[in-house]
Design brief:
alpha+beta, 5 domains, 43 strands, 25% helix
Length: 729
């Protein structure tokens, strides 16, 4: 395009010269009108006019101004979608959208070479956030990214970055148009339009609804007993236009545990169930999988997972602190040996500096040669039975540890024997005021409270005629009046009034009780029904005492079913040595993914809860993820505790993977870009550039073109040859 003229002489001289030349050409044409043919004259006239026009251009010197982008002065960004929906196989057996995108970039279409020559070409992948895209052997590494698809937010981030650095010249968006998080893409496209930056879109997908078979479990997790049968409920959905017969398998660590075949009508869902059992305690992850179906566009949702916490029968750990070996301890030990739900340990003083240990590990025995004086010793126990005769031998730190065990950890404490021997700290815990004393009673029948402690004796064993009888002249250690919060669980009708033979109350987070009877072992003497009385009484009492205890570490993600690609809080609550929330713990979480890869994450204190530590983890692989917490507390050995959670394809990203071509076309239209199919983009040469990018301006005289000189020379030579041919000079 001609921008201006720079004539070699004044315009009036050029005009006179032009008129003179036209006059000469006209005269020459007419002079030979009767001597040569009209066709020959017209040919000579044309040659003269062409030569005249070329000479005129040389005299007028037309100038052309060219504006080209300043090389390297702006960025051109290719934004590739790496979200979960790009794994959809449109058309059933066709390749996944992500594979088609990878092949397109690996082919390096001409338009990308053009952009690379004009500006700095950059590649980014995105889902919820964007990152620089890596290449290996010329192919992009397009692994599926976790999280949702924030198409608008990522475009907005590019625009914000352009304001801080190099200008943004063009954006090429390669996507299926799915957007389910962040800013509205059309609002961002309007901002691009206002800044004159076009977004050209390449759409991947098919307008036809994808054919799909999927399975999902209807429970998030299960908690079952070992060797107990349980049922896993699932829903199979068929989006094919015809009915499908599908085979469902349930596998634990790759071993198929159950299999079932069902018929699913077209465009319908069917509920089904599989019955399983587990012989090993622990956390099990069962994979419910559909056998592959030809034409299935979403193989990723052909499997779902459920976490099953298989538990041993509940066990109550009880510590007996005795002032001497007696029949009560011997029969309690027999009770535990015959009841798999009870585990008894004991530290019994035999004499000065001499102690008997039972049911303790070697480490516990080394830690406490006498009565324990550290709170950490009680970490694994639910309840403590304390013989008041042992209390004077317990150190002040040991008494404080017992008080923390009840008040902070939520443990249970049962005191028996002469309560007047208790130190003031323990006296504050018990449900009765001191002083107390020893009384001897005649043969009496104790009356259990059906609404307190023994309220789960549904068979009424303790309330039958053969109930809890005391032999004649039974000694009892009784205390004074009940405290305000205390209740009587076992009453003794004696001397026209009722005395508490067993009283209890809550104390802090735990529970405390006093028992006046020291010879419950006598209830076992006689027939087998007496054994049942003894067992029912102690089982109910110890269960009530120990059922509210708190573990030193509590893992909040245990058995959770987390959506694949979403953030999961792997929080843990920790109690310190005093069983109060620990503000000074140091924690790391080591997570093992289903493929065996490990990742270590430091945990930070939660801002709104003392003793709670938090970290975020994004699972990128479906299946069981194992978490091992390493807890370091001041002056305590390393504490390790593990759990598991399950990640699966779920959430909004997996619900709708249809191709949103309309959104991509609208983004391109509003921002001033172009829309391409992948095939069109392979052939494209250029995409629109921003109007605000730095441009280089060059001015070029058109008359200096070799083509113009060639035309002038050719026309003059042809005219000369024509004249010579007819004998003219």
């Amino acid at each position: 395009m001609i921008s201006h003229w720079e004539p070699a002489m004044p315009w009036w001289l050029i005009a006179l010269w032009l008129l003179a030349m036209l006059a000469i050409i006209t005269w020459s044409y007419r002079q030979f009108s009767d001597k040569i043919s009209r066709t020959y004259r017209l040919g000579m006239l044309a040659c003269g006019l062409v030569a005249l026009l070329a000479a005129l251009l040389l005299l007028m010197q037309p100038m052309q101004v060219q504006r080209t982008p300043e090389t390297g002065s702006f960025r051109c960004v290719v934004l590739a979608d790496q979200s979960l929906s790009m794994e959809t196989r449109d058309g059933g057996d066709a390749q996944a959208r992500s594979n088609a995108l990878s092949e397109l970039l690996a082919a390096r279409p001409p338009v990308l070479n053009t952009l690379a020559g004009q500006g700095r070409l950059e590649y980014y992948g995105f889902a919820e956030d964007s990152h620089a895209l890596a290449f290996a052997n010329g192919r992009p590494l397009l692994e599926t990214l976790p999280g949702r698809t924030a198409l608008g937010s990522n475009l907005h981030q590019l625009l914000s970055d352009a304001e801080k650095g190099l200008a943004l010249g063009a954006v090429v968006l390669l996507s299926d148009g799915r957007n389910n998080s962040g800013e509205a893409p059309m609002e961002v496209a309007k901002r691009y339009r206002a800044k004159g930056i076009p977004i050209s879109c390449v759409g991947f997908g098919s307008a036809r609804a994808p054919w799909d078979l999927s399975i999902s479990t209807r429970q998030d997790s299960l908690r079952v007993q070992r060797d107990q049968s349980f049922t896993v409920d699932a829903t199979v959905t068929n989006h094919f236009p015809e009915p499908k017969t599908v085979v469902i398998t349930a596998a634990d660590r790759g071993m198929v545990m159950a299999e079932k075949t069902i018929e699913v009508p077209a465009n319908a869902s069917v509920d089904t169930a599989l019955t399983l059992s587990a012989s090993n305690a622990g956390f099990h992850t069962y994979a419910l999988r559909l056998q592959p179906t030809p034409g299935d566009s979403r193989p990723d949702n052909d499997v779902d997972f459920i976490g099953v916490d298989v538990q041993e029968p509940p066990t109550l750990r009880v510590l007996y602190l005795g002032g001497g070996l007696d029949w009560e301890w011997r029969f309690l030990r027999q009770l535990a040996e015959n009841n798999e739900q009870l585990r008894f340990s004991a530290i019994i003083q035999l004499g000065p500096g001499s102690f008997y240990h039972s049911g303790l590990s070697d480490e516990q025995c080394k830690e406490s040669l006498a009565f324990p004086d550290k709170t950490t010793f009680y970490r694994d126990f639910h309840a403590v039975i304390l013989d008041a005769r042992a209390a004077p031998a317990i150190s002040a730190d040991g008494i404080k540890a017992l008080e923390s065990f009840v008040a902070n950890k939520g443990g249970g404490l049962l005191l028996r024997g002469p309560l007047d021997l208790l130190p003031p700290t323990l006296a504050a815990i018990i449900p009765q005021h001191l002083p107390g004393g020893r009384v001897v009673v005649p043969a009496l029948r104790l009356e259990p409270n059906p609404d307190f402690i023994f309220n789960r004796d549904f068979a009424g064993i303790l309330r039958t005629g053969r109930g809890l009888w005391l032999p004649h002249n039974t000694p009892l250690w009784v205390a004074g009046e009940l405290k305000r919060a205390a209740r009587v669980a076992l009453a003794l009708p004696y001397a026209s009034q009722s005395m508490p033979a067993l009283a209890a109350q809550g104390y802090g987070a735990g529970r405390a009780a006093t028992m006046a009877v020291e010879s419950t072992w006598r209830w076992r003497l006689g027939d087998n029904s007496r054994d049942e009385l003894h067992q029912v009484f102690w089982t109910h009492l110890l269960t009530w005492l120990g059922e509210v205890g708190k573990a030193q570490v509590r893992m909040h993600c245990r058995g959770v079913k987390a959506p694949l690609g979403d953030e999961l809080a792997i929080d843990i609550s920790v109690l310190g040595a005093d069983f109060l929330p620990a503000p000074d713990a140091q924690l790391n979480a080591r997570i093992t993914a289903p493929d065996g890869s490990e990742r270590q994450i430091p945990m930070e204190p939660a801002p709104d809860e003392v003793g709670r530590y938090t970290a975020l983890y994004i699972p990128t692989q479906p299946g069981e993820h194992q978490v091992l917490y390493e807890v370091r507390l001041p002056e305590q050995p390393l504490l390790e505790s593990g759990t598991s959670f399950v990640a699966r394809q779920s959430g909004i990203e997996a619900e709708d993977s249809s191709f949103n071509e309309a959104l991509l076309r609208d983004i391109a239209r509003v921002s001033g870009g172009d829309f391409f199919t992948p095939e069109e983009f392979r052939r494209a040469r250029r995409v629109p550039l921003a109007t605000s990018i730095p441009m280089r301006t060059t001015t070029r005289p058109l008359a200096s073109s070799w083509l113009l000189f060639a035309v002038l020379s050719g026309a003059l030579l042809l005219l000369w040859w024509s004249r010579r041919r007819i004998g003219l000079k």
